[in-house]
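To the wet lab folks,

You asked to see what we're planning to order before we commit. Fair enough. Below is the target structure as tokens, and below that is the sequence we designed to fit it. If anything looks off to you, flag it before the synthesis order goes out.
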């Protein structure tokens, strides 16, 4: 199928843009040159490429905590004591998912499997709130992204203290000292 024609510039260069966009899929394009006398050259070597305009879909569905006393799935904006949680998501099969932390450089990547699933275990994270971005791209460079937030908290709370226990039942009432006895059950 002939896509069209163009004129060669005086410096020997030329360019061509088809009037109708190419459909998604593989393409093989060749060119020929025709001179003023109507002589046509043999076809050039083929230029093979694929047009892919499909949207790349990616999501981060959860993080998984597998450290400490509280383990399991974590929702967006959760807190965890796991400094290496695993992000789990879905995307366009075959897409490469690149993970970045707090808007910085990529820390790693995963490939979306044929079922549309991916996971990535983060490198050790510092204490505090973090924003994770999953950016997926296909072979044509089309991208999609999703974000997920976690707070890494490995610091135990301060030891609580008991300020006062008071007995307000029976004959002996008032504050109780350590080791005292009481008839107050509430």
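Sequence we intend to order:
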């Amino acid at each position: 199928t002939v896509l069209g024609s163009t004129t060669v510039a005086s410096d020997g260069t030329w360019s061509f843009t088809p009037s109708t966009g190419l459909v998604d899929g593989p393409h093989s394009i060749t060119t020929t040159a025709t001179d003023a006398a109507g002589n046509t050259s043999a076809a050039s070597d083929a230029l093979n490429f694929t047009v892919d305009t499909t949207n790349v879909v990616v999501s981060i569905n959860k993080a998984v905590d597998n450290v400490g006393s509280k383990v399991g799935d974590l929702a967006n904006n959760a807190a965890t004591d796991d400094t290496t949680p695993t992000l789990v998501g879905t995307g366009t099969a075959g897409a490469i998912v690149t993970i970045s932390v707090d808007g910085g450089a990529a820390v790693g990547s995963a490939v979306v499997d044929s079922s549309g699933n991916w996971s990535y275990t983060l490198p050790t994270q510092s204490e505090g709130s973090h924003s994770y971005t999953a950016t997926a791209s296909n072979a044509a460079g089309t991208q999609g992204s999703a974000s997920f937030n976690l707070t890494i908290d490995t610091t135990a709370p301060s030891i609580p203290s008991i300020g006062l226990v008071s007995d307000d039942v029976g004959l002996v009432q008032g504050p109780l000292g350590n080791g005292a006895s009481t008839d107050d059950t509430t």
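Structural context that might help your review: The first strand starts at residue 25 and ends at 29. The radius of gyration is 33 Å.

Thanks,
Computational group
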